């Protein structure tokens, strides 16, 4: 039988994990809805923004290598301006990427542009590794260090704030996408760029705007996710993959579904790791998560194929 | 009309007098000369790196079949390579409790079969989906392998493990020095390239490429797109498996699992994207360059992420024919221009006597 204490604690942990994956998940869905590509580049953007935020806010005494000549001379700024700068950096880097992806590559095959975004991710990761080689740092939270116990799980103020912010962002962005003129124009571009252009939609302007917004969200994601993990290229990339899995489970279709997908993924991970189903080794946990992703992709891809066939008939 | 006499300088004397010095012949002779002489004068470190480069070239040939011919982007290249490396290494290992060391060929078959089956298994359900979903799933496979098989120390050896993977002995000949292994891996690369060329020219190779170009047309002429995509993945996995099997004894101990993580997959993906998949020689050259460049530029602290990223971005911007294809196009264009101007010159020469008369009228 399931231990109710473990189940409750795993549920709370699952929501926190889902929030962690959901942050980048919504930026991935936004850019996918705009350009029909998987924006791996957001992983690199999140990493750049997270590094900038850490560099501006961290206490030099708490960085690795402190007391040696290898220590990082971080700046100890207040958190708010650092968050704003990190978000702006995210928007700027996304604009740079979008300038090529929505300009020269506007009509290129989507897989090619997705490969291009993988290159963008590697370049941005490479830049951070050139500047802060080998850094694997603890990042201070913009919401302080406080913690509370919820249903037997120890939850930080940061995690609660992230969940609240995520739900708020999803509601606002979902409203913008579904109920405003800009949202309709976005969907028109997503369905058919040429047709949208013919009916007078300012394609380049809207595309750049959405890419900047998704880049800003990726930047914010980097700032918010690293205090829950640590700051390092492999960590951010790992979270990006989980976020991607959540977005895929949501069918890349809508922001609430992406959040739901991320939460589902978070729940599966929390329950398999937390011991709801007994002790499962880390290797088998990965296999289970891969199986969930696999089933999700098969369902989503099949549904898309049948919708396409229906549209053809 | 004047007849141009054959250029005597284009013919070799003696027994090779029938051999014309066409560009491919010159390339083969030059390569043989370079391979025979240069390794005798460079440090062992560069010999080792070049050997790794040849094996990277074989890996990339496998990726080229999946990416270039079948048009599917796989992000599990490093996972397949690592699987073959660790399985072959495990079977070759000496002094392992409960198992004796296997001879090289059966161990190699073990590694290659695992990589081929794994690649085909991913392809079976995904071959019907669009490229983006294949990317996501192969990425999932990569992460799963990183966190399962590669972390089991009884297979991968673990950090600082005192286990030895011996260099192979084939047909009574020991490849126990870096130089001998260098030549063995070069031969493996050439054979893999020839195999790839033969497959591309074959009915099955053309079918794989037709499926990428026009799925519906392929289905209309009786070619199953699903079947040929699975075949492409299996062939790709097979070539990557071969590369992995020869990589296992290269290091003489199990390599660190950081060599087979997702970033490495992206680095490997960058090579066919940069080189293009039109020419096998171009693919192999770029692969060797990608292996050697980070070490050559070590003093500049060049990050492999930057190199891989620049490769992916540059390669996608160059288009599907990649760097090698673009260079070939430029050479062809130059040749065409030269031929056209030559023809125009000949026409002018033959037209001059009558032309002057006409102009006089």
In short:
The complex is a heterodimer of chains A (313) and B (361). Chain A is mainly alpha-helical and 313 residues long.
List keywords for this structure.
heterodimer, A: 313 residues, mainly alpha, 2 strands, globular, B: 361 residues, two-stranded antiparallel ribbon
Describe, in plain words, how this protein is organized in 3D.
The complex is a heterodimer of chains A (313) and B (361). Chain A has helices at residues 4-35, 41-57, 79-101, 110-131, 157-179, 181-191, 193-198, 203-225, 233-249, 255-274, 282-312; strands at residues 147-150, 153-156. Chain A is an all-alpha fold. Chain A has a two-stranded antiparallel sheet. In chain A, a hairpin with a 2-residue loop joins strand 1 (147-150) and strand 2. Chain A is globular and about 60 Å long. Chain B has 361 residues and is an all-alpha fold. Chain B is built from 14 helices and 2 strands, in the order ααααααββαααααααα. Chain B has helices at 23-41, 44-69, 77-92, 104-126, 131-147, 153-156, 178-201, 203-213, 215-220, 225-251, 262-275, 280-296, 304-318, 322-360; strands spanning 169-170, 173-174. Chain B has a two-stranded antiparallel sheet. Chain B starts with 22 loop residues before the first helix and ends with a helix.
Q: Largest beta sheet of chain B: what is the strand line-up?
A: 1-2
Count helical runs of chain A: 11
Please tell me the overall pLDDT of chain B: 84
Determine the most extensive contact between two protein chains.
A-B, 48 and 46 residues
Q: Give the radius of gyration of chain B.
A: 24 Å
Q: What structural category characterises the helix and strand content of chain A?
A: mainly alpha
Number of discrete helical segments of chain B: 14
Describe the largest sheet of chain A. Answer: 2 strands, antiparallel
In terms of quaternary structure, the protein is heterodimer
């Amino acid at each position: 039988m399931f231990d109710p204490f473990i189940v409750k604690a795993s549920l709370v942990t699952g929501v926190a994990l889902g929030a962690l994956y959901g942050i980048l998940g919504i930026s991935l869905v936004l850019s996918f809805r705009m350009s029909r590509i998987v924006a791996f580049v957001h992983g690199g953007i999140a990493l750049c923004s997270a590094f900038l935020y850490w560099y501006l806010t961290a206490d030099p005494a708490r960085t690795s290598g402190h007391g040696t000549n290898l220590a990082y001379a971080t700046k100890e700024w207040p958190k708010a301006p650092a968050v704003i700068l990190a978000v702006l950096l995210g928007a700027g880097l996304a604009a740079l990427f979008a300038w090529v992806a929505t300009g020269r590559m506007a009509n290129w095959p989507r897989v090619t542009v997705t490969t291009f975004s993988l290159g963008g991710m590697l370049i941005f990761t490479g830049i951070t590794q050139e500047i802060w080689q080998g850094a694997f740092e603890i990042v201070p939270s913009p919401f302080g260090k406080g913690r509370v116990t919820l249903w037997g799980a120890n939850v930080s103020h940061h995690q609660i704030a992230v969940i609240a912010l995520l739900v708020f962002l999803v509601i606002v962005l979902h409203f913008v996408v579904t109920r405003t003129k800009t949202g309709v124009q976005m969907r028109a571009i997503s369905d058919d760029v040429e047709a949208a252009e013919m009916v007078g939609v300012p394609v380049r302007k809207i595309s750049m705007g959405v890419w900047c917004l998704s880049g800003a969200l990726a930047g914010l994601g980097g700032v918010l996710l690293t205090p829950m993990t640590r700051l390092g290229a492999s960590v951010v990339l790992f979270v990006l993959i989980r976020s991607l899995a959540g977005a895929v489970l949501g069918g890349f279709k809508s922001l609430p579904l992406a959040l739901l997908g991320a939460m589902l993924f978070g729940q599966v991970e929390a329950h398999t790791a937390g011991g709801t189903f007994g002790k499962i080794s880390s290797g088998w946990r990965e296999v289970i998560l891969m199986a969930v992703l696999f089933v999700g992709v098969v369902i989503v891809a099949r549904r898309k194929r049948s919708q396409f066939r229906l549209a053809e008939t | 009309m004047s007849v141009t006499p054959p250029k005597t300088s284009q013919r070799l004397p003696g027994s090779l007098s029938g051999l014309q010095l066409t560009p491919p012949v010159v390339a083969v002779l030059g390569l043989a000369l370079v391979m025979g002489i240069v390794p005798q004068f460079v440090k062992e470190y560069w010999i080792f790196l070049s050997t790794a480069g040849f094996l990277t070239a074989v890996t990339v040939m496998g990726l080229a079949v999946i990416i270039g011919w079948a048009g599917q982007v796989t992000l599990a290249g490093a996972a397949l390579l690592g699987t073959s490396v660790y399985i072959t290494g495990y079977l070759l290992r000496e002094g392992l409790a409960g198992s004796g060391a296997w001879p090289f060929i059966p161990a190699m078959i073990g590694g290659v079969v695992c990589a081929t089956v794994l690649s085909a298994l991913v392809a079976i359900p995904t071959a019907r989906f669009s490229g983006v979903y294949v990317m996501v799933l192969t990425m999932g496979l990569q992460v799963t392998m990183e966190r399962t098989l590669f972390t089991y120390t009884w297979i991968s050896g673990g950090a600082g493990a005192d286990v030895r993977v011996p260099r192979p002995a084939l047909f009574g000949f020991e490849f126990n020095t870096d130089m001998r292994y260098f030549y063995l891996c070069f031969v493996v690369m050439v054979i893999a390239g020839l195999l790839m060329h033969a497959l591309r020219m074959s009915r099955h190779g053309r079918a794989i490429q037709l499926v990428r170009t026009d799925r519906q047309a392929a289905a209309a002429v009786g070619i199953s797109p699903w079947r040929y995509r699975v075949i492409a993945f299996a062939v790709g996995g097979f070539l990557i498996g071969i590369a992995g099997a020869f990589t296992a004894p290269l290091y003489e101990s199990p390599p660190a699992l950081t060599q087979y993580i997702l970033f490495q997959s992206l680095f490997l993906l960058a090579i066919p994207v940069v080189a293009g998949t039109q020419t096998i020689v171009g693919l192999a050259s770029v692969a060797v360059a990608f292996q050697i460049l980070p070490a050559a530029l070590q003093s500049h602290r060049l990050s492999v992420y930057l190199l891989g990223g620049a490769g992916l971005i540059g390669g996608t911007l160059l288009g599907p024919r990649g760097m090698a294809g673009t260079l070939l196009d430029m050479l062809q264009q130059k040749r065409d221009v030269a031929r056209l101007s030559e023809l125009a010159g000949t026409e002018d020469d033959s037209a001059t006597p009558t032309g002057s008369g006409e102009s006089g009228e």
